[in-house]
Amino acid sequence: MTPVKHNLSAIKGEFITLTIGYNGEVEPEDLFACIRQSTYDEWYRAKFNITVSKDNLAAGERCRIILSLDTKEFLDGRYVWDLFVWAGGRPVKCLVKGQLTILEGVSNRGK
Predict the structure, then answer these.
(1) Which of 1, 8, 50, 64 has the smallest set of CB atoms within 10 Å of its CB?
(2) Is 29 in a helix, a strand, or coil?
(3) Cβ distance 46 to 35 under 8 Å?
């Protein structure tokens, strides 16, 4: 199965929250989502906080994966991100991938 592509955009300093309906059952420790400057970078820039909910599910969903990230430490620019299911100490399935664009704001630098 090909991962879903989902691009994100935020003004530096905003919190990003993304809720993903999933037709399987997973726990937060079975998931990993991170941001890298490019797909070839060895180290990740930041990782998403991950929670899993089984409340208010839509038809076909067995859980909802909630990703959150604070962008205050990012420089403006384009990054890549993805969400993987892990098992046995290794990634086994990429659910979502995309780009994250951080834009510089005007009023976010102080008042």
Answers:
(1) 1
(2) helix
(3) yes
pLDDT recorded at residue 1: 66
* Tens digit of each residue's pLDDT (9 = 90 or more) over 25-47: 999 999 999 999 999 999 999 99
Q: Please check the confidence at residue 98 and state whether its pLDDT lies above 80.
A: yes
C-alpha to C-alpha distances, 72 to 8, 27, 52, 55, 95, nearest whole angstrom: 15, 27, 24, 30, 26
Distance between CA 105 and CA 111 in Å, rounded? 13
Instruction: Return all residues near 55 (Cβ < 8 A) that are at least 6 apart.
Output: 64
CA neighbor of 107 nearest in space, from 15, 16, 12: 12
pLDDT tens-digit map of 4-23 = 999 999 999 999 999 999 99
Note the pTM of the prediction, 2 decimals: 0.90
Strands (DSSP E) found in the chain: 4-5, 8-11, 15-22, 31-36, 46-47, 49-53, 63-70, 77-87, 90-103
